[in-house]
Amino acid sequence: MPRPLRTIIQGVTYHCYTRCRGRRELLKGRYGKKYFIESVKMCQEKYDFKLIAAEIVANHIHLIIKTVENKETISLIMQFIKARIAEKYNRAMGETGPFWNERFGSTIIEESDNPEEYLLWLLWYIGYNPVRKGLSRDPRKNEIGFINCYLDEKFVSPLIFTLHEYFNRLGRTFRERADKFLTYEDAYRKRLALWV
């Protein structure tokens, strides 16, 4: 049975995720972080899109990307990032063959029942992913640390992040927005406690 076609719409926000082959922890350690950051930076230099969030876990990655009207599609952006990571890993390890387990998964944030609530909750979900996997104790101290861009106006990240318009609607000043955003962390932590 053929795979269903991916919905491609320009000017919307995608949550994208993909796993390493066999769920192996190929991205664990400093080299995984290095390949990920270098590949996303290369993509940001080549294509026009907004990076809203990015996080690396030992065997998978999460990206929230907003595409731009009449520019590159989400498929082209993700294909570029995945290919660069695979090339860098295979070259460094002297390997050949597939790095990724499957084509990437994606959901369009704006198609959810409540896009604003969903995105703000999703940012914390992605931020807490390494915490849930035992790779970090706090999303503020994760490898990429994108969540700090939403909490500290002066935070310098290894990648260029664009604060999503839904975050910007939370208040008139950055501090107001960050304080309101922290209420989503509280809600996420309560939900996380129910899962454990």
Descriptive terms for the model:
4-stranded antiparallel sheet, Alpha-Beta Plaits, 4 strands, alpha+beta, 5 helices, globular
CATH topology-level fold name: Alpha-Beta Plaits
* CATH architecture designation: 2-Layer Sandwich
Q: Rounded to an integer, what's the Rg over CA atoms?
A: 17 Å
Q: Give the CATH class.
A: Alpha Beta
Fold and architecture overview:
It is a single chain. This protein is an alpha+beta fold. The protein has one domain: Transposase IS200-like (Alpha-Beta Plaits), CATH 3.30.70.1290. Helices cover 41% and strands 14% of the residues. It has 5 helices and 4 strands, in the order βαββαβααα. It has helices at residues 30-46, 74-93, 115-132, 165-168, 174-195, and strands spanning 13-19, 49-57, 60-67, 105-108. A hairpin with a 2-residue loop joins strand 2 and strand 3 (60-67). The longest helix has 22 residues, at 174-195. The chain starts with 12 loop residues before the first strand and ends with a helix.
